[in-house]
Design brief:
The structure is a single chain. This protein has 558 residues and is mainly α. It is built from 24 helices and 6 strands. The protein has a single domain, classed as Up-down Bundle (Amino acid/polyamine transporter I). The protein has a two-stranded antiparallel ribbon. A two-stranded antiparallel sheet has the order 3-4.
Length: 558
């Protein structure tokens, strides 16, 4: 609302975000089920795997590349963007702000930063020691978030019906004659508003990043994405209408106000003598929701960074790319194997229970990738200490939306159009999706992504010109600097590889040996259940990689 200055335009932006989300979901489902392609039982076909956008960019943009596409330029660009910005720093900050508000404690900069580092550490430890526990927590918090959104919608309906005996603003805000009055004349405000909208809608592509962790991905991923997107679109639109019914426009235009807090204050606040009680309850709910985002993002981002490490473009790729069994099952197995240990003798009766079978709790987790994820999360939390926690959250959200959502989203949209309009690709023989819907989705997603990419370079004229924690050009400048660093990283690798070839006569090779099985259903399609990756510098004349120096990476089978 602060960017558009208009109720009608704000709701239209949310509706545009819904269309953008549907188009993006369609693209990701098509890419996820059609790429990468492998030969299985004599036929080339798309076999889903983890990595999401990384896989799709590598499939489409194969040039420029080093030595038979061993290392692609697009891999380095994606890696730099996702490693630096694909973290949970923003969510950690907002989680701590809401937590301190719920506790009625002062949200000082140092307190928020310290708690944010602790929250990031806890989330990484959960996923490092229990893959199943991390998934369960993510599902639990997702349910809580849906129930919270439903609560807002129901409360909005009750307020409109006069249950809270307070004034409502449905006519003032939503009537056609009023809703578009006073719309902003500043293009920068609209750009900021759309970046915020696509950040809220982002998440439809998250299943694609962890397809290797999903059993029967061809069945579950499309169905889960469609159901999830439908629920989110419906609830988000209804929640925004509920806000417009209860909260006056003038209050929403005040940058010091939180619309959700005003909503609860004007509804539940009328039923309580203590005005702070509803706000503290809401802050507690929002803290729970934010921690759920942290847990889910940690699970997904660690898998993506593991896939990046498998490309061999990071230092210590074996450490960052392998999986380790640090789970509770390993701890149980040690106790049960040592019959004379104190814990075994003390809890012998409990350890014999079938539900404490170590095999049931033994799971491999990407420990190295989790450490990489935690490191850059802490760096981003500390790098924004000169800003207030709220301003830092806004900056981090804009950077993520601009780079990960908009720029990379634009790239995969152009990639789909390239596949559809290129006669050499013969994409119609590789994809079973409707060509018209595929091209339409790609155009919509490309236009929606290109808008903030270009419009962010237009300087502000109104309130954004005089107010703001950082300069107006910070988001696009930092984003393109990170992407440019990916290009520099690629060129540096080429320089180093050329030097090794001249000096030692060796070339860098990456060999991935996937393991396939059939979907656990009668005559089911193939699924990838594991992968061995060989990374080595080998003599130019050699064909096979040096297994001695290779890194072995495998994933849990499903």
């Amino acid at each position: 609302m602060l960017g558009t200055q208009s109720v009608g335009v704000t709701l239209l932006f949310w509706a545009a975000g819904a269309v953008y989300t549907i188009a993006g979901a369609h693209l990701n489902i098509e890419f996820g089920l059609s790429t990468p392609r492998h030969e299985f039982e004599g036929r080339w076909q798309g076999i889903p795997r983890s990595g999401g956008t990384l896989n799709y960019l590598q499939y489409v943009f194969k040039w420029p590349a080093y030595r038979q596409r061993t290392v692609l330029l697009v891999s380095c660009i994606f890696a730099m963007a996702y490693i630096v910005l694909g973290n949970m720093a923003g969510n950690c900050l907002i989680f701590c702000i809401h937590t301190l508000q719920a506790a009625n404690a002062p949200a000082s900069n140092s307190a928020v930063r310290g708690l944010a580092v602790a929250a990031a550490t806890l989330a990484c430890l959960i996923h490092a020691f229990s893959r199943r526990g991390g998934i369960w927590l993510g599902n639990f918090f997702a349910l809580i978030k849906v129930l919270m959104l439903l609560l807002v919608v129901i409360v909005g309906i009750c307020a409109w019906a006069g249950v809270f005996h307070t004034e409502t603003y449905a006519y003032q805000n939503l009537a056609v004659n009023n809703s578009f009055k006073g719309a902003s004349q500043d293009s920068y405000g609209y750009t900021s508003a759309f970046l915020a909208v696509i950040f809220a809608w982002s998440g439809f592509d998250q299943p694609n990043y962890v397809l290797g962790e999903i059993g029967t991905p061809r069945k579950k991923m499309p169905r889960g994405t469609i159901i999830g997107v439908s629920i989110v679109i419906t609830l988000y639109l209804l929640v925004n209408i509920a806000y417009m019914v209860v909260v006056p426009k003038e209050a929403q235009l005040n940058p010091e106000n939180n619309v959700a807090h005003l909503f609860f204050k004007l509804t539940f606040g009328s039923l309580s003598k203590d005005d702070t009680q509803p706000l503290r309850i809401l802050s507690a709910f929002m803290a729970i929701s934010s921690f759920g985002n942290i847990v889910v993002m940690t699970f997904i981002a660690a898998r993506v960074k593991q896939e990046i490490a498998k490309e061999g473009i990071l230092p210590f790729p074996k450490f960052f790319g392998q999986t380790k069994n640090l789970s509770f099952g390993r701890f149980l197995n040690r106790i049960q194997s040592d019959k004379h240990s104190f814990l075994n003798r003390m809890f012998h009766w409990l350890l014999k229970q079938p539900w404490l079978d170590p095999q049931e709790h033994s799971q491999e987790t990407p420990f190295g990738a989790l450490f990489l994820h935690w490191t850059f999360t802490v760096i981003m939390i500390l790098a924004t200490t000169h800003l207030s926690p709220t301003d830092a959250y806004g900056v981090l959200v804009n950077l993520y939306s601009y780079t990960i959502v908009a720029v990379l989203g634009f790239a995969i949209a152009i990639g789909m159009l390239k596949l559809r309009f290129s006669s050499r690709e013969r994409w119609q023989t590789k994809s079973s999706f409707n060509p018209f819907l595929s091209i339409l989705s790609a155009f919509i997603f490309a236009i929606g992504s290109a808008y903030p990419i270009v419009a962010s370079w237009v300087p502000p004229m109104g309130v954004f010109a005089t107010h703001g924690a950082v300069a107006w050009y910070t988001t696009p400048t930092v984003s393109w600097s990170i992407l440019t660093f990916g290009v520099v990283w690629y060129l540096a690798f080429l320089t180093y590889a050329s030097r090794r070839l001249r000096k030692d006569g060796v070339e860098f090779q990456v060999q991935k040996v996937p393991e396939f099985d059939r979907d656990p259903q009668p005559d089911g399609p193939p699924v990838q259940i594991g992968e061995t990756v060989f990374l080595a510098w080998v003599a130019k004349e050699c064909i096979r990689p040096m297994v001695n120096n290779a890194g072995h990476v495998s994933r849990e089978s499903f």
